[in-house]
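pls design
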């Protein structure tokens, strides 16, 4: 019994050391032994058993993964779960309505229009606004100077009084 165990350990050690011996020979540029011949047969039973075991393992892993994903609780919100809302449908063609809305928004961003005619405020296209900002250079985000206001009657009277007082 002890002799069989020792023989088994020697075979295992020899089996595990064989790749290292081959690498050592290649590293030293040694030629393999001419008289060393590999055994002609392969342990087909072991190879088939390993392949079957591997196949069973893969099948079990896939089955376990499938079971795991099917047993998960649906955590989506009710809004995400609903594909098409039930009747009454308020839009006949939601895609066409969306396209019409986006076209209208694009047109508004690309055209000139009055924002407030009384104040003289105008909406300009986004591209033109960006060109104006780029043209201002480093002053692009500096505060804008207020527009010159027309002098009112009171300011004119004060200016006239100041000039008359300075003339005396």
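designed seq:
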């Amino acid at each position: 019994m002890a002799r069989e165990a020792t023989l088994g350990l020697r075979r295992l050690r020899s089996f595990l050391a064989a790749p290292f011996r081959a690498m050592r020979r290649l590293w030293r540029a040694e030629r393999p032994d001419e008289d060393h011949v590999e055994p002609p047969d392969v342990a087909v039973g072991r190879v088939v058993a390993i392949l079957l075991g591997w196949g069973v393992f893969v099948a079990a892993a896939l089955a376990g993964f499938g079971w795991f994903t099917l047993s998960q609780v649906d955590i989506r919100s009710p809004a995400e779960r609903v594909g098409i809302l039930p009747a009454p449908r308020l839009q006949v063609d939601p895609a066409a309505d969306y396209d019409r809305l986006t076209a209208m928004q694009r047109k508004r961003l690309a055209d000139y229009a009055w924002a407030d005619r009384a104040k003289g405020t105008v909406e300009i296209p986004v591209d033109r606004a960006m060109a104006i900002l780029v043209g201002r250079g480093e002053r692009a985000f500096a505060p804008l100077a207020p527009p010159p206001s027309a002098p009112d009657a009171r300011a004119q009277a004060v200016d006239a009084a100041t000039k008359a007082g300075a003339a005396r």
